Each structure stands twice: as C-alpha cells, then as structure tokens.
Amino acid sequence: RQMQRQEQFEARIAAGEFIEAKDWMPEHYRQTLLRQISQHAHSEIVGMLPEGNWITRAPTLKRKAILLAKVQDEGGHGLYLYAAAETLGSSRAQMLAALHSGRAKYSSIFNYPTLTWADMGTIGWLVDGAAIMNQVPLCRCSYAPYARAMVRICREESFHQRQGYDALLTMMRQGSDAQRAMVQDAVERWWWPSLMMFGPPDEQSPHSAQSMRWGIKRVSNDRLRQQFIDATVAQARVLGVTLPDPDLRWNPQRQQHDHGAIDWSEFWRVISGDGPCNQERLGARVQAWDDGAWVRAAALAHAAKHSPAPAQ
Ligand code: 3HC
C-alpha cells in the first residue's frame, strides 16, 4: 500500500503535477519542505534587521518611505512563508523556537553589518537581486502552497531590487567622490557574501539531488549563481563600480563569466553561527519574542474570554 502511494507520488512529480497540503506525500518530502520554507521565512524576518538599522538614518524622506515599505514587505513575506510552512503540520511557535534556539538557519547574508547608507542600495541591488534569481524558479516548486506564496513575493522583490539600484545610480551620478567611494566600498563588502546566498557548490550540497528529483529545486545552486553573476556584471558596468574579483571575465567558449574562487570556509563558518553579526541578529529576534510575550498572553486571554464555551 505504502509502495503504491510512493509510486503514485513519484509519477505525479514526474508528470509535473503540483502537490497540495491535503495530498499524500512521503515524510522526507514533507520534512524537506518544512526545513526549507521555515528557514526561508526566518530569512525574511531576520532580513528586516540589517535594513531596519537605516530607517531612522535615511538621507531623505523619500528614501525613508521606500526603505520602510521594503522592510514591511519583508515582514509580510515572512508571514506568507510561515503560513505555507504551517500547512505541512508545524506550528509558528515550533518554527520560531527552532530559530531562537539556533537549530534552524536563516540566510547567511543577513549576518553582515550595514555600515553606510550605500549598504542599503547595495543590499537592494545585490541581495534582493540574488533573492529574485533564487525565488523565481521556486514559483514552480512542486509544493503548491509554497509556489503560490513565491508568486506574490517575487512581484514585490523586483521593486526591492529596482529601488536599491536607483539609490546607487543617484549616488554614482549625482553624488560626490566620497559618495562614489562609499558605494564602491559597499559593493566590495557585499559581493562575495551575495554569491554565497545561493548555497554551497552543487557537489557539496547534501540536499540538491533529492530536492531536484522532487521538483523542489528546479535549478541548481551553481547554475543560479552563474546566472546572477552574468546578469550583474553588465549592471555594475552601467553603475560604474568595479566588482571585487580580478578573475571575473567573459569566457566566449562558455558564453558565461569565469570568476574567482569563493571562500567556502567563510560560508560554513557564517551558517554555523560564527559570522560577524549572528549573535546580534539572533539576540534581536529573541528579545523581540520575549518583549512580545505580554501581547500573546493578552490575545490568548481575550480569545478565551470571548470564545464559545466548549459543548458539554
Ligand atoms: N544561508 C544559510 N544556510 C544555507 C545557505 C545560505 N545562503 N545556503 C545553504 N544553506 C544551508 C542549507 O539550509 C542546508 O542546511 P540545513 O540542512 O541545516 O537546512 C545546507 O546549507 C546545505 O545546503 P543545500 O544546498 O544542500 O540546501 P538546500 O537544498 O536547502 O539549498 C537554498 C539551499 C538554495 C538556500 C534553498 O534552501 C532555498 O532555495 N531556500 C529558499 C530560498 C531562500 O531561503 N532564500 C533566502 C534569500 S534571502 C530572502 O529571501 C530575503 C530577501 O527578501 C532578501
């Protein structure tokens, strides 16, 4: 019976069908999606912190309003994704407990500090640009609730990337030499960590093979990384910044850019909790959870008072 359902499931995936929450699915498929979607949600929520640092320091009211809207979007993306993860049988409290205890991951990129205003434009351009590359294929993920959440998220991500690039163009074209240097410095600090967002090299990725067989991962880590590099080199040229990789050059045979080695020891160190800002980011999330305990208690007390008494 179990084998028959497993074979039917594999046949549905092979036929390109989408799986709904009520459909039968292998336990490993469920666990893989729960891991990925909850960590994606954590990434969105933790991702609000680096940018939140600059909402009160934005140079104009216009930039402040845009940054505020973007950070609010990230919060909304987190809620869509926690809701999608809950369809797999986990609760919000369980997922957040995994984050706060350090058991669950969130995107490595948010463990770096945002030192200047140019970091805001650079995060929009490179980090949201990489996120779009990684998230567009997820709109075709075989798990339908995740795919539907990603369609909405991708629409907002393109605004995030555009506003970042626009802010940098303003600094590069209308700014002072000091502001141009500020942009170049930010690009040098964010370039390599942005490439790491796509995950380890395919041959060092324990989940990729299975996730690709199940239609969860439609394009491999390395291929998405390469697409991002190829798309970004031209944008950097228009912007007038130099990407910090002396080995970056167009390879006519490959019709792609060759690039320098990525420091994977930094990547594994950062995702195991030893990045520049891991303690600060997780501390902020735990503090927010603790500070919000009274709100949760009040909401539960209110619900208990007003919910119908259980039938005798
Ligand atoms: N940061 C943190 N952990 C990472 C990582 C990264 N950049 N890349 C890989 N990892 C972790 C994986 O989670 C896995 O650890 P785990 O088993 O404890 O979960 C391990 O490294 C091995 O990596 P794999 O490639 O084998 O794992 P996956 O098949 O899950 O691929 C992934 C990694 C490509 C990140 C995939 O999980 C994915 O596509 N996730 C959904 C997209 C996502 O999370 N994007 C975050 C971007 S930031 C964001 O969305 C906010 C935006 O608005 C700016």
Overview of this protein structure:
With 312 residues, this protein is an all-alpha fold. The chain is built from 13 helices and two strands; from the N terminus they run ααααααααααββααα. The protein has helices spanning 2-14, 27-46, 48-52, 61-86, 92-100, 118-135, 144-174, 177-196, 208-213, 221-239, 264-274, 278-291, 293-306, and strands at residues 249-251, 256-258. Strands 1-2 form a two-stranded antiparallel sheet. Strand 1 and strand 2 form a beta hairpin. Helix 6 packs antiparallel against helix 7 and helix 6 (118-135) runs parallel beside helix 8. It is globular, with a radius of gyration of 21 Å. The model has no long low-confidence stretch (mean pLDDT 96). Bound molecules: 3-hydroxybutanoyl-coenzyme A. 3-hydroxybutanoyl-coenzyme A (3HC) binds at residues 35-36, 39-40, 43-44, 47, 74, 77, 105, 107-108, 127-128, 131, 134, 196-200, 205-208, 211, 217, 221, 271.
Short key terms for the protein model shown above:
13 helices, globular, binds 3-hydroxybutanoyl-coenzyme A, mainly alpha, single chain, 312 residues, 2 strands, two-stranded antiparallel ribbon
